[in-house]
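Q: what sequence does this backbone want?
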């Protein structure tokens, strides 16, 4: 999946709050927003009790529904892949999203949240992806994008991303 995540100033603040740092999901105010099964799932994927998180608004529910643990996520912004991670757990929990990002109520509220494992910061220019077969020069990857199997393999191979979770 390719997901823009570092565009508007508000989104950059969200990045600082949940990608630059580990979020202690077992502590207040996060713990109270999670259902017991969600706390268990997160604890299983992140035994240390903290994780990095990103998410999507409700309009992306169908796309998020197909995400599975281990799926690779490219987080983009400023014409670069800024980070790469793998999905740890996927939650649909608007209250947890509000606790993570405290969005302006006038904006779209995020309802989908996913944790990340094997997270690493990167600085890969879009041109490196555009040079791969099947990609278009000038595609700025607007909006959450799921890649089909062919494009996924092309990106994983072309950017030398390890396939093993």
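A:
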């Amino acid at each position: 999946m390719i997901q823009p995540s570092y565009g508007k100033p508000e989104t950059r603040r969200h990045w600082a709050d949940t990608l630059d740092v580990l979020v202690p999901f077992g502590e207040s105010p996060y713990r109270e927003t999670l259902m017991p099964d969600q706390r268990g799932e997160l604890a299983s994927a992140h035994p240390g009790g903290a994780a990095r998180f990103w998410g999507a608004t409700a309009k992306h529910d169908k796309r998020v529904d197909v995400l599975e643990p281990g799926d690779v996520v490219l987080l983009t912004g400023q014409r670069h892949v800024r980070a790469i991670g793998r999905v740890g757990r996927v939650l649909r929990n608007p209250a947890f999203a509000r606790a993570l990002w405290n969005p302006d109520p006038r904006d779209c509220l995020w309802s989908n949240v996913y944790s990340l494992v094997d997270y690493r910061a990167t600085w890969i220019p879009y041109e490196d992806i555009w040079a791969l077969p099947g990609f278009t020069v000038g595609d700025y990857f607007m909006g959450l994008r799921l890649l089909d199997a062919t494009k996924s393999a092309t990106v994983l191979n072309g950017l030398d991303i390890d396939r093993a979770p």
